[in-house]
């Protein structure tokens, strides 16, 4: 059994899939220069790894190691993207009407640099304060922690906006878009 060959097959496919996952996520987020550059490296690695396995199909372990590199590469690629935390998140927070701190939450979040829009709505149990908060994904967890620290009963839902124009964040976003388009 050639352990050196198995290790090469694993690491080549691991690198290919990790890069592929990152490239796909960058493509979805609109990184029009870096995504194609990564894809060039990705395809070279892919052809090398696949040729190594196809030339050695007599050993089924080669194929199993290739598949293992694929699976772990996806997992690591996702973790890398999570660490990069590219893009923005839009969070809607609905506060119960009996919240004593509801008047201070928007002010606290604004002091911490979040864009907050406040509106009011009606829920099953009465009036509600609704906060719409745009934040970089890198600050998403700290935003949730701060909200829960102030109001444990807050209903929180978030999504990734596809298009952003105007408002508090426009200038910050434009500066970042110039660097990756």
Give a brief description:
With 181 residues, the protein is an alpha+beta fold. It has six helices and four strands; from the N terminus they run αααβαββαβα.
Write structural notes for this entry.
It contains 6 helices and 4 strands. With 181 residues, the chain is α+β, with helices and mostly antiparallel strands. The longest helix is centred in the first third of the chain and has 26 residues. Helix content is 56%, strand content 18%.
Helix proportion: 55-70%
- Describe the largest sheet: 4 strands, antiparallel
Distance between the termini: 47 Å
Question: Judging from the principal axes of the Cα atoms, what is the shape?
Answer: elongated
- Percent strand equals 15-25%
Task: Flag low-confidence runs.
Answer: none
Number of discrete helical segments: 6
Mean pLDDT: 85
- Major β-sheet strand ordering: 2-3-1-4
Structural classification: alpha+beta
Radius of gyration: 23 Å
Number of strands: 4
Order of helices and strands: HHHEHEEHEH
């Amino acid at each position: 059994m050639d352990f050196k060959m198995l290790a090469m097959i694993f690491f080549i496919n691991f690198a290919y899939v990790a890069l592929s996952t990152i490239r796909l996520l960058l493509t979805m987020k609109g990184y029009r220069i870096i995504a194609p550059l990564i894809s060039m490296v990705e395809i070279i690695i892919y052809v090398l790894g696949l040729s190594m396995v196809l030339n050695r199909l007599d050993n089924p372990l080669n194929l199993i190691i290739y598949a293992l590199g694929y699976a772990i590469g996806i997992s690591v690629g996702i973790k890398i993207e999570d660490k990069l935390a590219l893009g923005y998140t839009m969070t809607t927070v609905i506060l119960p009407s009996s919240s004593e701190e509801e008047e201070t939450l928007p002010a606290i979040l604004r002091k911490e640099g979040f864009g907050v829009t406040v509106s009011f709505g009606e829920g099953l149990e009465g009036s509600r304060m609704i906060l719409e908060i745009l934040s970089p994904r890198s600050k998403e967890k700290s935003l949730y922690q701060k909200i829960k620290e102030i109001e444990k009963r807050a209903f929180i839902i978030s999504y990734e906006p596809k298009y952003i124009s105007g408002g508090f964040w426009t200038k910050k976003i434009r500066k970042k878009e110039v660097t990756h388009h």
